[in-house]
Design brief:
Pfam families: AAA_17 (PF13207), HAD (PF12710), UPRTase (PF14681). The protein is of the alpha/beta class. About 45% of the residues lie in helices and about 20% in strands. Helix 15 links the parallel strand 9 and strand 10. The N and C termini lie far apart (about 80 Å).
Length: about 650
């Protein structure tokens, strides 16, 4: 592992010498610790050094740094980035940082002390440090701001990790925290980052009682919500807490210079960690209040969690601010969704989630649970490796139409990803259609859920608004008799509108309402060769709703399987309608007869208002050639009897029962 060369930087009277002394006293044995001035004065006295011009001072600094760099081992060195100068009482700053500094340091810790404290220390040192200029409080503020800003930019450009340490003004506490930071810095490598992620995932895995059928890996920013919470954070910081108006640009500059690399996310973690904890928490709270998760994703996850808690495990993997995402997920799901990510230091168990790390998460889960399917949702370049590793990958369209990510699809390593990728868009026409026509096929969360949770030949509409409203009418205690029959007809008509998407339609001539002689309309192809088979009396009203959609179809009441023998040869399509499928015995019986005994070769469709959850998983798999359509899937195993039986409610025979 390469040597760590850590610089301790700040302005005069920030306490660098005392910090160095404290580090030495704490026996930091794996580091050589020295003051920058000690190295400079190896061959020249400090007094003579100060008399030199700028060019010769820079030369000696370079020689000192070269000597340090050639010396083996990790090093901690104090240094200066700039010094103040005055022209007509106006303060300016002379940068003494050289190219050699940039080539030498791997990390910079900047000691941030309140200007008022530095002013007090100056006064106390006025006689003992007469070599230093005495600065007014306003000048101290400007110097600190200048150095923090310029040194951070210098470090970002050069790939040096930059950490602002806010002094607690307590010697022991400062030394203790700095020791922790330095120990952490010495351990920070991509390899250790990957190890910490692996430990975290295995720890999570130990809580699972069975091997899941599927893991759903979901990015946070611009995937679960429209906004980027990191950008929101820095805009709010800029608005309420900073005199600078470039905080958000500085944040973006890290990724512009270093991509979505380990260094970039580690530097961002340093940036967050350098903030006052109260300010950090206040801004997080504001961002949480302003962030709305996509309702489609909320619904998708709630259904997954309520129905399949052991079989299908959603996991949110974020590269952004963990506190924000922890709170957002907790608000909606409690502690049901695991969250992986990291953005604060020091903590030697922490990690950052860069592009490779996200891919590593997917790869780890695949290796630990080889029978489990991996599905991934993401929107940006940082999700590329995760999407590439997944068995099924979904691109969530963002407000940029994912421009940056799309450009990466031309790379050879992502060619296979592009072939399997599908996209999801939550933008509708009223908000402005922000998608574009391209070769990536579009899908929906409902479609993904159908294929994931239930067999691919089951089409259920449990989460649709129409289904919820229609089902409400049918379940209302006061609705019965002719009113309930009307509701069931509406359900049948609605379900027929879904089924016919699998039918062929033909053009036909019609007399137009505007008075034209003829115009083109459409009709179902061979409508007269469709047979609607009504299961039980409870399916009659629903079947009539289907019949309204295709009035030329035949309408047959099923009493016995042989009832349909005399008709079946006439049909190309059969639609079996029942209001409720509980265990599926009746439906299984007729399907076994039609498919197995009779060997009907046409297309078969089943329409029902409700199918019980367990049956929804089994029955369609038993008959893969049959398409099943259900208004909703129910986990309620209760079978209606008496005044709760659907047939009795439909025909007002509850008293007879």
């Amino acid at each position: 592992m390469a040597d760590k060369n850590i610089g301790i930087y700040s302005i005069n009277a920030a306490g660098k010498t005392n910090i160095l002394k404290g580090l030495k006293e704490n026996h930091l044995t794996n580091f050589n610790i020295c003051e920058g001035s000690e190295v400079i004065t190896r061959n020249i006295t400090l007094e003579n050094f100060k008399k030199l011009d700028t060019e010769n001072k820079s030369k000696i600094r370079r020689e000192a740094l070269k000597w340090l760099k050639d010396s083996p081992g990790n090093k901690i060195v104090t240094g200066h980035f700039s010094f103040p100068s005055f022209i007509n009482k106006e303060i300016s700053f002379e940068k003494v940082w050289t190219d050699f500094d940039g080539n030498f340091y791997t990390d910079i810790i900047y000691i941030d002390v309140p200007p008022s404290e530095i002013y007090i220390r100056q006064k106390a040192d006025a006689f003992s440090r007469s070599d230093r200029p005495f600065l007014e409080l306003e000048h101290i503020k400007k110097w600190l701001e200048y150095e923090k800003k310029e040194l951070e930019l210098e470090c970002i450009n050069l790939g040096i990790k930059f950490y602002i340490f806010k002094s607690l003004l307590d010697k022991n506490s400062d030394h203790e925290i700095l020791l922790q930071i330095i120990e952490n810095i010495s351990k920070q490598t991509e390899k250790n980052n990957a190890t910490n992620i692996e430990i975290s995932i295995k720890k999570f895995g130990s809580t699972l009682s069975i091997e899941p059928k599927c893991f759903i890996l979901i990015d946070g920013d611009r995937t679960l919500c429209e906004n980027d919470t990191g950008i929101m954070f820095w805009k709010l910081y800029e608005k309420y807490y900073s005199s600078s108006n470039s905080c958000n640009n500085d944040f973006k500059a890290i990724f512009k210079n270093h991509g979505h690399s380990y260094f970039a996310f580690l530097q961002v973690a340093y940036k967050y960690s350098g903030l006052d904890s109260r300010i950090y928490n206040n801004i997080c709270t504001k961002v949480i209040k302003e962030t709305k998760l996509y309702p489609q994703f909320l619904n998708f996850l709630k259904i997954i969690l309520s129905s399949h808690s052991q079989e299908i495990i959603p996991i949110v993997i974020v590269s952004g601010i963990v506190e924000i995402w922890h709170n957002l997920l907790y608000q909606h799901f409690g502690n049901k969704i695991p969250l992986f990510g990291g953005n604060l230091f020091p903590n030697d168990e922490e990690y950052v989630m860069d592009v490779k790390s996200k891919g590593h998460c997917a790869k780890l889960l695949k290796s630990i649970y080889p029978k489990s399917k991996i599905i991934a949702f993401g929107d940006s370049e940082v999700d590329l490796e995760m999407l590439a590793e997944a068995d099924e990958s979904y691109l969530v369209v963002d407000y940029t139409n994912n421009r940056a990510l799309r450009q990466r699809f031309t790379e050879q390593k992502y060619m296979d990803l592009k072939k399997k990728l599908k996209k999801i868009s939550f933008f509708n026409v009223t908000n402005g259609d922000k998608t574009e026509n391209d070769e990536i096929p579009i899908t929906t969360l409902d479609e993904i859920r159908y294929n994931l949770v239930y067999p691919s030949n089951l089409y259920e509409y449990t989460s649709s608004h129409a289904s919820r409203i229609i089902a409400t009418f049918s379940r209302h205690k006061e609705t019965s008799g002719i009113n309930l029959c009307n509701v069931h007809e509406n359900i049948g008509y609605f379900m027929a509108s879904k089924v016919i998407e699998k039918f062929e339609i033909i053009s036909k001539s019609i007399n137009h309402v505007q008075g034209c002689t003829v115009t083109n309309g459409f009709a179902l192809e061979n409508e007269e060769k469709i047979g609607i088979i009504v299961m039980m009396r409870a399916g009659d009203s629903m079947a009539k709703g289907v019949w309204k959609f295709m009035p030329k179809a035949s309408y047959i009441h099923h009493r016995d399987n042989k009832d349909i023998d005399k008709y079946i040869n006439h049909f190309e399509k059969l639609i079996l309608v029942d209001s409720v499928i509980n265990e599926g015995k009746t439906m299984r019986s007729i399907l076994n007869y039609i498919v197995g005994d009779y060997k009907f070769r046409g297309k078969i469709f089943v329409i029902t208002g409700v199918i019980q959850d367990v049956t929804a998983r089994k029955l369609p798999r038993e008959f893969p050639e049959v398409s099943f359509y259900a208004l909703r899937v129910s986990k309620n195993k209760y079978k209606g009897i008496g005044d709760t039986d659907t047939g009795h409610r439909l025909y007002n025979t509850t008293l007879v029962s």
